[in-house]
Amino acid sequence: MKKVLLIVGALVLLIGIGAAVFVKMSQDALNQLVKTPITDVDLSVVEDGSYDGSYSAFPVSVTVKVTVEDHAITEILITKHDNGQGKPAEVIIDDVLSSQSIDVDVISGATYSSKVILLAIRDALIP
Fold first, then answer.
1. Alpha carbon of 95 to those of 59, 91, 118: distances in Å?
2. Cβ-based neighbours of 117, under 8 Å, separated by 6 or more
3. Of 120, 102, 127, 121, whose CA–CA distance to 39 is shortest?
């Protein structure tokens, strides 16, 4: 019985340590994301076409397809968004389309996903 309790205790301890490491890694990645600057894209040098971009900051990951015509962004499709609770951030593409810039305010309550979406759009448009 003592061996079983010892083994169970060791497993609980290992799971606790693993969970703590996971939480720490997630928080470090998100803190780094907050510090990542988002510089705008010069659309005057972007040729017509569809461009794929992606960005990840664990646990948020986004893949986009951005269409450009006559040096203007005409469409942004989010093809993948692993977000936890960041789904509301997807409306940020409307702000980007209307302002023709990624220099827009993030969506309140979905800051991390907003930044990752903007950085994915930037990745698509910067060679």
1. 24, 7, 11
2. 55, 62, 64, 78, 81, 89, 90, 92, 93
3. 102
Instruction: Give bridge partners of residue 78 from the DSSP assignment.
Output: 64
Angle at 69 between CA 63 and CA 95, to 5 degrees: 55
Residue 59: cis peptide before it, omega within 30 degrees of 0: yes
Buried b (16+ CB within 10 A) or exposed e, 49-73: eebebebebeebbbbbbbebeeeeb
Closest C-alpha to 78, from 88, 57, 68, 93: 93
In 1-127, which residue ranges form alpha helices assigned H by DSSP? 2-35, 92-99, 111-125
pLDDT digits (tens, 9 = 90+) for 71-120: 999 999 999 998 777 788 999 999 999 999 999 999 988 888 999 999 99
Burial state string for 92-113 with b = 16 or more CB within 10 A and e = fewer than 16: bbebbbeeeebebebbeebebb
Q: Tell me the pTM.
A: 0.81
Structure tokens at 44: 């005057």
H or E element, residue 41:
none
